[in-house]
TrEMBL record:
Region (Lon-protease-like): 357-454
Organism lineage: Bacteria, Pseudomonadati, Pseudomonadota, Alphaproteobacteria, Parvularculales
NCBIfam families: sms (TIGR00416)
One Pfam assignment: Zn_ribbon_LapB
Motif stretch (RadA KNRFG motif): 258-262
Function: DNA-dependent ATPase involved in processing of recombination intermediates, plays a role in repairing DNA breaks. Stimulates the branch migration of RecA-mediated strand transfer reactions, allowing the 3' invading strand to extend heteroduplex DNA faster. Binds ssDNA in the presence of ADP but not other nucleotides, has ATPase activity that is stimulated by ssDNA and various branched DNA structures, but inhibited by SSB. Does not have RecA's homology-searching function. Plays a role in repairing double-strand DNA breaks, probably involving stabilizing or processing branched DNA or blocked replication forks.
Annotated protein name in UniProt: DNA repair protein RadA
Domain description: The middle region has homology to RecA with ATPase motifs including the RadA KNRFG motif, while the C-terminus is homologous to Lon protease.
Species for this entry: Hyphococcus aureus
Residues that coordinate or bind ATP: 101-108
Gene3D superfamilies recorded: 3.30.230.10, P-loop containing nucleotide triphosphate hydrolases
Keywords: ATP-binding, DNA damage, DNA repair, DNA-binding, Hydrolase, Metal-binding, Nucleotide-binding, Stress response, Zinc, Zinc-finger
Top-level taxon in the UniProt lineage: Bacteria
Residues in RecA family profile domain copies: 72-221
Length: 454
């Protein structure tokens, strides 16, 4: 018999304690620690049913060399280009993916469309929901116009039943919506607890590896933006994608935060419509506000999201402050980065923002993490400070160093090409970015930027 031990597990981060406490020391959350009975050893596998085999001789494992057979199963295309791009060019057989997102963002909708796409491509796909009845899924499929696709639907939450069915049916891909609704009867813990989520994910990942089936797990996200349940699920799977939306907007971004088989930070952009998610092949159209009248404080940044160039407008507002400590507010960018940029503009270009409130906003609700956005943010700030509009047909990119120097960034050519494609006629860019694509004004330091923006 496996030995049962009582442990206390934080339901927010998965930290394990020997005794109860009111506050989790690992994540700082209050009242999240619950008593759970757990079996010593990996759940339901070595310690459980297979316990008897320990007495028999261990089976020798086979090693194989790098030069063995390399017949690689091709990636499975879902027919949805944005989704395929976000996973690095299609789904790898035998891989497990975790797709997280807030409730209502459209995870079930996306995955039903993906299931239908895979089924249309000839793959056998199972969609197992623990949240909706099959009739409800059918209703949704009808709304999405995919009710004719040969997708196998089931409504189930018992891991044992699900695995037995999958082993018998052997589908090419299975979608589990969601991992938080599953429960394994090998464990005494309640569904949705860290112990259950972890154990169920582990079993499903093991099934994916041993059978070659693609397992897509849906995960809910907690209020602080992490996948509910332990972070350890993120380490088990091959790829973690977040499905995000900005409040009050129709577009959704599928962002790969980890991918063993492709580039991380790759994004797929969708728009939620009445009949499901529409692919947005040209996301720049969402992030440029358009309009021909030039206003001060707006600069177009030529950025790279994953491997794809995306143009986005950066807006700044600099206005005299009535407060002793002027306000600094940022949406879509790093606030520490803004403070740094303001200090550099002050020290190296002699621009004083000290008595002004400063607001910075990335249009369209995109979040930018690239240092290459520095110069565009600086351009927007200067333009607002001088109350002088920037030329509307120019893009800006470049990293700003503490010395006030403008440093080169990667993928210059891709940025310029995208700008040209969207009808821009010039760029302000780091020295050396000259190319045949667009007319480039080179900025070596912030001084050139200030001269350009005045
Ligand atoms: P859903 O996929 O159920 O979200 P999740 O599984 O992430 O919780 O999406 C629910 C939202 O999407 C709901 O607010 C309605 C909206 N929606 C549409 O706008 N159009 C559609 O065609 C569908 C199916 C849903
Ligand atoms: Mg759902």
């Amino acid at each position: 018999m496996a030995k049962h031990t009582d442990t206390f597990v934080c339901q927010s981060c998965g930290a394990v304690y020997g005794k109860w406490a009111g506050r989790c020391e690992a994540c700082g959350e209050w009242n999240t620690i619950q008593q759970e009975m757990s079996e010593a050893g990996p759940p339901g596998s070595l310690a459980g049913a297979a316990g008897g085999t320990a007495k028999t001789k261990g089976k020798k494992i086979e090693f194989t060399g790098l030069t063995g057979s390399t017949e690689e199963a091709p990636r499975l295309n879902t027919g949805n280009q944005e989704f395929d791009r976000a996973c690095g060019g299609g789904l790898v057989p035998g891989s497990a993916l975790l797709i997280g997102g807030d409730p209502g963002v459209g995870k079930s909708t996306l995955l039903l469309q993906i299931a239908s796409g895979l089924a249309k491509g000839g793959a056998s796909v199972a969609y197992i929901s623990g949240e909706e009845a099959t009739a409800q899924i059918r209703l949704r499929a009808k709304r999405l116009g995919v009710e004719k696709s040969p997708v196998h639907l089931a409504s189930a939450t018992s891991l044992r039943d699900i695995l037995a069915t999958l082993k018998a049916e052997k589908p090419d891909a299975v979608i589990i919506d969601s991992i938080q609704t599953l429960w394994s009867d090998a464990l005494p813990a309640a569904p949705g607890t860290v112990t259950q989520v972890r154990a169920c994910a582990q079993e499903l990942v093991r099934f994916a590896k041993s059978s070659g089936c693609i397992v897509l797990l849906v995960g809910h996200v907690t209020k602080d933006g992490q996948i509910a349940g332990p972070r350890v699920v993120e380490h088990m799977v091959d790829a973690v994608m977040y499905f995000e939306s900005e409040q009050g907007r129709d577009f959704r971004i599928l962002r790969a935060v980890k991918n063993r088989f492709g580039a991380a930070h790759e994004i797929g952009v969708f728009e939620m419509a009445g009949n499901g998610l529409r692919e947005v092949a040209n996301p720049s159209e969402l992030f440029l506000t358009g309009g021909d009248t030039a206003v001060s404080g707006a600069a177009v940044f030529a950025g790279i999201e994953g491997t794809r160039p995306v143009l986005v407008e950066i807006q700044a507002l600099v206005s005299p402050s009535t407060l002793a400590t002027p306000r600094r507010a940022v949406v879509g960018w790093d606030s520490a980065r803004l403070s740094m940029l303001l200090a550099v503009l002050d020290a190296r270009a002699g621009l004083d923002f000290g008595r002004n409130d400063v607001f910075l906003n990335v249009a369209g609700g995109l979040r930018i993490a690239e240092p290459a956005a520095d110069l565009a943010a600086a351009a927007a700030l200067c333009s607002s400070l001088f109350d002088s509009p920037l030329p509307r047909d120019r893009v800006v990119f470049g990293e700003v160093a503490l010395s006030g120097a403008v440093r080169p960034v990667n993928q210059t050519e891709a940025r310029l090409k995208e700008a040209k494609k969207l009808g821009f006629s010039g760029a302000l860019a780091p020295a050396g970015a000259q190319s045949g694509t667009l007319k480039v004004v080179e900025a070596e330091t912030l001084r050139e930027l200030v001269r350009w923006a005045r």
